[in-house]
Amino acid sequence: MGEPRTWHVASVDGNFRVMTAESGFCALFGVSGFELRHRSLLDYLHPDFAEGPRRALTALAAGDRREAAEHVVLAVPGGTAVSAELTALRGPRRIVVAVRRDVGRAQRARQTLLSPLEALVLEGLAAGVPTTELAQRAHLSRQGVEYHVGALVRRFGVPNRTALVAKAHAAGMYTADVWPPRVDPRVLETTRRAVGS
C-alpha cells in the first residue's frame, strides 16, 4: 500500500461509488475495487464521526461546493477503524477523491473496536464490579462473564484482569475524568451500546 503519508486516488460518481481507483485506495478501505464500485464510499464512514464529512461530500456531489477536505474515520471490514484525511474535487464529469492515512492518529484509530458487551465488561472490571453483579447487568451467567473476560485477556495479550484494565486505559479506551469508568464511544462498534445502559 506504500508509505503511510502517500495519497491514494480514485474517481467516483455522484453517489461516491468508485469508477476507477489505485490499488492502494481500495486497500485503505479494506475491500476490493469490485466492492467499492457497488457501494458508496460514504457507507464506509464510521457512524460516530460521519456527520460532518457526509454533509461536506453530499454538498460537493450536489454542486454546492467545488472541493472538500475532511478528516474521516473509516469503518473497514473486521471491526477496525482507520483514521484518514480525505480530499475531494468536483470536475465536470466526475469527482476525484484522494485519501491517505492520518499518521498522527493512527495508533488510536487502528485499534480494534469493541462490541457493546465487551465495553460493558471492561467498564465493570475498571470499576471493580463483582462478577455476579456484572453478570446481572449484562444478562449473562457468571460463566458467560468469565468467558468474555478471558476472550478480552487473550485479545489484548495480557496475563490477567488487572493488566487488561491497565492496557485498555493506556490505549485510551476509557473516557477521561469519568467515574464510574465509561468506554469512549469512539471505540465502540457501529451496533452501539445496547446492553446495560
From TrEMBL:
Could you tell me which SMART domains the record lists for this protein? Answer: HTH_LUXR
Would you say which domain of life the source belongs to?
Answer: Bacteria
Domain HTH luxR-type residues, every copy: 107-172
InterPro entries xref list: PAS, PAS-like_dom_sf, PAS_4, Sig_transdc_resp-reg_C-effctor, Tscrpt_reg_LuxR_C, WH-like_DNA-bd_sf
- What name goes with this protein? LuxR C-terminal-related transcriptional regulator
Mind giving the lineage of the organism this protein is from?
A: Bacteria, Bacillati, Actinomycetota, Actinomycetes, Pseudonocardiales
